[in-house]
Specification:
This protein has 381 residues and is mainly β. It has four helices and 21 strands.
Length: 381
């Protein structure tokens, strides 16, 4: 046991404190062992996430979420590139019969780079956050395949490389068995109605019963083929109504036939694409429940609110006797009352109200029913 500090001998009341102090020093001086130096952490590009495969006609389409940043959060430079690798496996290599580690090892050993995305194309990926790559014609048997060969099976994976050559971890290889795609739907027709864009089409050339369909929409300025259908579930009917659009925007609609909804999806090429620009030419309904009452020196009007989501305001009209109706004032769509403070005593007024939407140009409803009211004449002096 180490000797007591001189201050402890001089002041016994500090004995406990001194023992603690000496023990602390001893412990501090006794843990000076140093281990081997740790290697510096490698800062690598972040790997792709949410990788998906699908077949569209003769193409295999890969899409993935990419951040184009490194593990420390710094952005990748202009020389970065996304590498798409593909493996056409032998009959023995299947996802069900192999561990993920073995699958990655075999893929890294035998896969080949079939495409890369960089430069301005990668800049568009940076803006959207999603990489889309079309492996053109991959679903068609190659020239080296024997006659009558079945539709090819592939594994795909993605890797991001920065401008310094550092590479992200490879995404987990995904498998897709390509098939003969169904024929595309025909005769797409579109008509607009209030609050809807209605589509109808015919079956493809095969005319199979039980076919399923997906409806796609893109803005006129969008170059990329849309991957997410408008319909939440595959459609068995050859009709669809799109209610999630904006008036005045130009859209392009197309329909693809679908073999099976389970991933990976196998779809036909899009049928004929039809462009439409729905315009709001539909007036709101006329307000109802209009009533008038004298309140002090004003005539107060009340009515029931309209339910149109794009309602902008109400217009109040007034006339006397056989005169034409004239605009008296407007109130916001959140208001359902109006006070006429310009009414003269002894005059009978007739009122009506209309609803106006926010279209360009705005649409005005028909007039509500008329009501009449007047302020009592002044008593004689």
């Amino acid at each position: 046991m180490p000797a007591a500090h001189p201050a402890c001998r001089a002041f016994p009341t500090r004995l406990v404190l001194c023992v603690l102090l000496v023990g602390s020093v001893t412990a501090a001086t006794g843990c000076g062992k140093k281990g081997p130096p740790l290697p510096p952490l490698r800062v690598l590009p972040r790997p792709p996430q949410s990788v998906r495969l699908r077949q569209i006609g003769p193409d295999v389409v890969l899409d993935a979420a990419v951040s184009l940043t490194r593990s420390d959060g710094s952005p990748l430079g202009p020389g970065a590139v996304a590498r798409i690798e593909r493996l056409r496996p032998g009959p023995a290599l299947k996802t069900a019969g192999a561990s993920a580690r073995y699958l990655v090892q075999m893929f890294q050993k035998e896969a080949k780079v079939v495409g890369s995305v960089g430069g301005t194309d990668l800049q568009r990926v940076r803006d959207s956050g999603r990489l889309v790559y079309h492996d053109r014609g991959a679903a068609v048997a190659g020239p080296g395949d024997p006659p009558g060969a079945s539709w090819p099976r592939y594994f795909y994976a993605v890797q991001i490389a920065d401008e310094r050559g550092e590479r992200s971890p490879l995404s987990v290889p995904l498998e897709i068995q390509t098939v003969q795609p169904p024929p595309p739907p025909r005769g797409l027709k579109i008509e607009t109605a209030e609050g809807e864009v209605r589509l109808s089409w015919e079956e493809g050339g095969a005319g199979k019963t039980g076919e399923l369909f997906n409806v796609y929409r893109r803005a006129a300025a969008q170059v990329e083929e849309p991957l997410q259908p408008l319909n939440a579930e595959p459609l068995a009917d050859r009709a669809y109504a799109d209610a999630k659009f904006k008036y005045g925007e130009t859209y392009r609609y197309s329909v693809r036939a679908l073999l099976a909804p389970a991933p990976p999806m196998h779809e036909s090429v899009p049928g004929d694409e039809v462009e439409v620009r729905p315009l709001d030419v539909y007036s709101p309904k006329a307000p109802t429940g209009l009533a008038a009452a004298v309140e002090g020196s004003a005539i107060k009007l009340y009515w029931f609110p309209n339910s149109e989501p794009d309602l902008r305001n109400y217009r109040v009209y007034r006339r006397t006797g056989s005169e034409e109706l004239r605009l008296l004032g407007e109130v916001d769509a959140t208001e359902t009352s109006f006070a006429d403070t310009t009414a003269e005593r002894g005059v009978r007024y007739h009122y009506t109200v209309t609803a106006v939407d926010g279209a360009t140009p705005p649409n005005e409803s028909a007039r509500s029913e008329e009501v009449s009211e007047g302020l009592a004449a002044d008593a004689p002096g």
